Amino acid sequence: MPVPQETPVTLGFHMPAEWRPHVATWLTWPKDPETWPDRVPHVEEIYIEMMAALTPHETVNLLVDDEATERAVRERCAFPSSGNIRFHHILTVDSWIRDYGPNFLIDGRGGAAFNDWIFNAWGNKYETLKYDDGVPLFLEPQLGIRRFVPGIVLEGGAIDVNGAGCVLTTEQCLLNPNRNPHLSRTEIESYLKSYLGVSKVLWLGEGIVGDDTDGHIDDIARFVGPNTIVCALEDDPEDPNYELLNDNLARLKSMTDANGVGFEIVTLPMPGVVGGTSTDTRNLDRLPASYANFYIANHVVLAPVFGHENDRRAVETLQRVFTDRRVVPINCEPLVWGMGTIHCVTQQQPQP
Residue 3 falls within a domain, yes or no? Predict the structure, then answer.
């Protein structure tokens, strides 16, 4: 399948790195009881905490279903910078705006645009959640910028860029037949290059155990600089994540950037088995908890923690990496019961 001639890259657009200055962060207010059974109130408190950390430094665009929800949220936002929250009344099913929301782009002339990828609820796993595929189109009039329609399935959590020609992704997700079975590996690379403005695709293998997204990159490896990658690594040889994360680390060590230069790799610990300490005492299946699911915003980094002994080491590691930002740890044990944490529920809008 050939890529259309007029794409973001042909018009000078590219997806910038997440640490580039933001105009705003986009969020969708949580409410789905199927995603967070008995935990929606806990997750709402996490959202309040995230917005309190973000709004002193950038606008937060919050999608809510209606006026009543907006009033209820406003009443709970007692922090001084709450005036930097902009509410948008758009019906949604769930809160994973990283995966279904606009994928923002910029050019070198002060312009902005976005990609509207197909969202099929992580390989057709959740039929009702496919409704959220329409969110980027609904936002187009409010954004007032060009919308590109690649025509293939892709979630935002499946890609991570360094803003200097490279994109990280996984074979488990992008080559999965439940996404784009009609496309070869080479064709998928062509789409990524044309719609993200990159010249090199870096493939890791599998994502972490318990990840129902089929191995999103934002749980295992993240760019934190043009030539620096943070990589999740499991210390326990008996843990199911041990071998697959070591395989990804070995791949990263052999990779080079768009200029052929090897990357600096910084390892992050894993939080062990997360299965309900603060909001549940049942012995359920392993949840996809990872410290790599942090979000880089203006002046701050929001870091998920889980009440594990490795929390402190993870936060200290991120603080050493982000010397120009304050790392804000947020207890995401309630949030991860929905199968994702901070990066999964945020979407950055870069400053043109």
Answer: no
